[in-house]
Each structure stands twice: as structure tokens, then as C-alpha cells.
């Protein structure tokens, strides 16, 4: 293991920053009968007239319990997208630092690099969609702050091999961000369990996929207490609203419901897979550890349009490297998948 020091990675302005102290920071509502005249809120109770907890304590309490990790190692954001943006803003000096991503992958890393004026270096996955670890480590320079790995990866659907991820963790002195948006669909263990081993590891998860709450916008970041403390300094105080916190708690506490839906989706994924194999114009169905299937077809633009005409919206991923003529299908309900299957069977194979 190389010598890792977090201090050298943090932006100078963030190091010296003093975060905004909100009214709810200075005096914590503890359920007692206090009279709150501190935050210029409207006093007439409607369930939403008070500012939300800026530290999302009750959400984190549930997450800490579920994941077996202290609350001090958890940051909650307005979707993973906010969490990822905070990582750029905390660690990457605009126009100076760079990050590495591994296309084909999630598009937001590059967009966030653009917004924050951070150079994004790209190292393609191998032909079997695994990280080219030697090349990744060769691409690291003195200004590389973050490497983003998405596992299970979007849009390729596969998980990365443990040995590859470990090699990057051990060989990189910056921060490795593992985006686990689809981890609840995978049998693989989350990298959260390795946070104690690797001080440069950051894991992000979301309530947008398996938990079925894309609409509330909640993403979660797990990392060392030191990393989380830095992110807390720069996050907007009320970044997660009250409705979202309430809904998230309900969803997180319903683990039986989660399991039921995940199993249904995984069962349906195999039904759709079997069908896709039999379609003449489908050339390849890639292995999936997520709630979608990536397929290679004869002509993705044509098949995309034909499916649209039958009322099915797929995702054409053909512009991504290594993804020529690919369509990505999210697994829907049994009913929705039947529509997809019927539509696929009706298309001309010529
Ligand atoms: C869907 C998805 C997310 C989720 O982002 P949210 O902002 O939490 O909705 C994150 N990462 C990847 C790779 C995704 O596909």
C-alpha cells in the first residue's frame, strides 16, 4: 500500500472554509416543548413549515443500522448526482486537477467534470467490459485526484472483478469512487465493507433504482470519517428536503418490500433475456448484475425507431465506445416486459 494522506488532496479553499451555520445547527430540535423563534419560519404548523434536519440524523441512523457503519461515515445528498458533484468541488482544483473515468460508463462523471472545469481522462474498459487496471494506473499523474469506477456498471450491466478494483485501490494515492447505484441487484458484496481497509475508498449508492424512489432524489456517500467531514463542510445546509427524508425512512425500513421487488425484477430479467436470445436480429445479450440488459443488435438506430413506433422506449447506447449497435432495456413489470417481448417478436428480422 502506498502512503495515503488526505490533506494533500483537499482543495486549499475548502481546507480554510468555515461552513454556514444554520439555526438548526445552533439549537437542535430534540422533541422537547421549546418555542422556536430562531429561523424566521412561519409558526403555523402544517408538517412542512420547519426547516429539515440539515444532518439528516434519522435517515443516517437507519442507514448506519442497515450497513453496519457509523453515522459519521455517511453523507446524504440530493441524489448521487449531488454527492458526485461535491466530490469534484471538495478535491479538484478547476483547470489544474484531473480525474479518470472508464468508458463506456455513466455520463454524469464527464458532465460534472465539464461543469467544474476539471479535465476528465478516459481509459476504455477492455472488450469484456473490465477495467484495464495497468493502463488506469499509468494514466494517473500528480494532479489526478479521483478515479470513478461504476460497478455494476451502467450501461454494460456487469460488475468489475474484485482483483481489478483492489489493484487500483492499492496503487492509487488519490480517491477511488465506486458508484454502486445497482448494488442491490447484485449478489456481490458492497465495497462498504472495505472502508476500514482502504482510506482512499469512497462508495456511493442511491435510492433511485432498487428502492424505487428516483423521484425523491436521495443519494448516499460512504467513506472515512475524515472524507465525510470535508464533504459536510461544503454541502448546502438543507440539501435534502423534509418530504424526501420522510419518504426515504419509510422505504429504507421496508427491507421486505425491497427484497420482493428486487427478486421480481431479477426473475423478469431472465424472462426477457431468454426472449432476446431467440430474436434473430439480436446478436448478443451481455451478462447483467443490474436491472437492465445491454444487447447488441444488427442495426440499433433502426431497431430503436421500430420499437418506438410500437410504444416501447429503449435506450440507444451506440454512441458510447465499445457499444456500437447496442440497445439497453430496463426491466419493467411482467406486463411491460410482455409488451416488449411482443414488439420484438413482431419486428422483421430481415
Ligand atoms: C441511475 C444512476 C445513478 C443514480 O443517480 P441519482 O442521482 O442518485 O438518481 C448513479 N450512478 C449510476 C451509474 C446510475 O446509473
Distance between the termini: 55 Å
Arithmetic mean of pLDDT: 96
Per DSSP E runs of 2 or more residues, the count of β-strands stands at 11
Catalogue the ligands: pyridoxal-5'-phosphate
CATH architecture identity of the largest domain: 3-Layer(aba) Sandwich
Provide the structure class.
Answer: alpha/beta
| Secondary-structure element order, N to C | HHHEHEHEHEHEEEHHHEEHEEH
| Helix percent band | 25-40%
Which superfamily, in CATH terms, is the homologous superfamily of the largest domain?
Type I PLP-dependent aspartate aminotransferase-like (Major domain)
Please report the number of helical segments. 12
What characterizes the major β-sheet? 7 strands, mixed
The radius of gyration over CA amounts to 22 Å
CATH fold-level label of the largest domain: Aspartate Aminotransferase, domain 2
Supply the key terms:
single chain, 350 residues, alpha/beta, Aspartate Aminotransferase, domain 2, Aspartate Aminotransferase, domain 1, four-stranded antiparallel β-sheet
Question: Explain this structure to me?
Answer:
The structure is a single chain. The chain has helices spanning 12-15, 23-26, 57-67, 79-91, 108-115, 133-139, 162-171, 225-234, 242-253, 255-278, 300-309, 334-346; strands at 74-77, 98-101, 119-122, 144-150, 175-179, 201-206, 219-222, 282-285, 292-297, 315-316, 326-330. With 350 residues, the chain is of the alpha/beta class. The protein has two domains: 7-253, Aspartate Aminotransferase, domain 2 (3-Layer(aba) Sandwich), CATH 3.40.640.10; 256-349, Alpha-Beta Complex (Aspartate Aminotransferase, domain 1). The strands form two sheets. A seven-stranded mixed β-sheet has the order 1-7-6-5-4-2-3, sandwiched between helices. A hairpin with a 6-residue loop joins strand 8 and strand 9 (292-297). Helix 3 packs parallel to helix 9 (242-253), helix 4 (79-91) crosses helix 5 and helix 10 packs parallel to helix 12. The longest helix has 24 residues, at 255-278. It is globular and about 70 Å long. The mean pLDDT is 96. Residues 79-81, 106, 150, 154, 179, 181, 206, 208-209, 214, 219 line the site of pyridoxal-5'-phosphate (PLP).
Amino acid at each position: 500500500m502506498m502512503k495515503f494522506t488526505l490533506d494533500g488532496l483537499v482543495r486549499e479553499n475548502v481546507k480554510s472554509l468555515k461552513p454556514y451555520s444554520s439555526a438548526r445547527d445552533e439549537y437542535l430540535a430534540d422533541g422537547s416543548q421549546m418555542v422556536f423563534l430562531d429561523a424566521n419560519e412561519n409558526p403555523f404548523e402544517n408538517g412542512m413549515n420547519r426547516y429539515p434536519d440539515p444532518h439528516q440524523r434519522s435517515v443516517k441512523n437507519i442507514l448506519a443500522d442497515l450497513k453496519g457503519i457509523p453515522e459519521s461515515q455517511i453523507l446524504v445528498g440530493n441524489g448521487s448526482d449531488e454527492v458526485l458533484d461535491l466530490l469534484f468541488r471538495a478535491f479538484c482544483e478547476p483547470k489544474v486537477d484531473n480525474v479518470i473515468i472508464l468508458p463506456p460508463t455513466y455520463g454524469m462523471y464527464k458532465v460534472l467534470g465539464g461543469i467544474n472545469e476539471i479535465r476528465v481522462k478516459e481509459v476504455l474498459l477492455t472488450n469484456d467490459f473490465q477495467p484495464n487496471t495497468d493502463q488506469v494506473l499509468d494514466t494517473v499523474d500528480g494532479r489526478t485526484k479521483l478515479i470513478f469506477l461504476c460497478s455494476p456498471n451502467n450501461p454494460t450491466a456487469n460488475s468489475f472483478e474484485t482483483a481489478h478494483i483492489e489493484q487500483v485501490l492499492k496503487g492509487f494515492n488519490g480517491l477511488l469512487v465506486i458508484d454502486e447505484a445497482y448494488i442491490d441487484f447484485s449478489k456481490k458484496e458492497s465495497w462498504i465493507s472495505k472502508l476500514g481497509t482502504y482510506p482512499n475508498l469512497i462508495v456511493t449508492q442511491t435510492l433511485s433504482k432498487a428502492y424505487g424512489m428516483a423521484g425523491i432524489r436521495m443519494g448516499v456517500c460512504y467513506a472515512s470519517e475524515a472524507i465525510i467531514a470535508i464533504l459536510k463542510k461544503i454541502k448546502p445546509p438543507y440539501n435534502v428536503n423534509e418530504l424526501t427524508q420522510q419518504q426515504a425512512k419509510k422505504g429504507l425500513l421496508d427491507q421486505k418490500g425491497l427484497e420482493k421487488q428486487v427478486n421480481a425484477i431479477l426473475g423478469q430479467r431472465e424472462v426477457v433475456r431468454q426472449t432476446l436470445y431467440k430474436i434473430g436480429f439480436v446478436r448478443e445479450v451481455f451478462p447483467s448484475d443490474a436491472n437492465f440488459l445491454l444487447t447488441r443488435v444488427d442495426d440499433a438506430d433502426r431497431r430503436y425507431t421500430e420499437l418506438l413506433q410500437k410504444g416501447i422506449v429503449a435506450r440507444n447506447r451506440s454512441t458510447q465506445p465499445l457499444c456500437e449497435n447496442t440497445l439497453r432495456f430496463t426491466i419493467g413489470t411482467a406486463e411491460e416486459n410482455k409488451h416488449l417481448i411482443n414488439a420484438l417478436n413482431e419486428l422483421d428480422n430481415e
